[in-house]
């Protein structure tokens, strides 16, 4: 997890940071799912689904941003 934060902070390119953010989101969703199983609370599964959907939509947004040229220096 520390390596993910290092890549997120000092990643050389924006796509590296996006991949690190996606990995971090996947780890968090997995941890929420494991906690839901451990505590036998089904409402945490809903939280995990919402977190996964949010991470997916963020990845789509970043991909569209990069496809259109990324940050511009006008």
Automatic annotation (TrEMBL):
Pfam assignment, any one: MrpF_PhaF
Keywords tagged on the record: Cell membrane, Membrane, Transmembrane, Transmembrane helix, Transport
UniProt protein name: pH regulation protein F
Coiled coil: none
Signal peptide (residue range): none
Localisation per UniProt entry: Cell membrane
Listed GO MF terms: sodium:proton antiporter activity
Organism of origin: Nitrincola tibetensis
């Amino acid at each position: 997890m520390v390596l993910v934060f290092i890549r997120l902070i000092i990643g050389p390119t924006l796509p590296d940071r996006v991949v690190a953010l996606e990995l971090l989101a996947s780890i968090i969703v997995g941890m929420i799912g494991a906690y839901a199983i451990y505590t036998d609370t089904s409402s945490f599964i809903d939280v995990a689904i919402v977190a996964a959907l949010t991470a997916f939509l963020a990845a789509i947004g970043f991909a569209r941003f990069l496809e259109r040229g990324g940050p511009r220096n006008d």
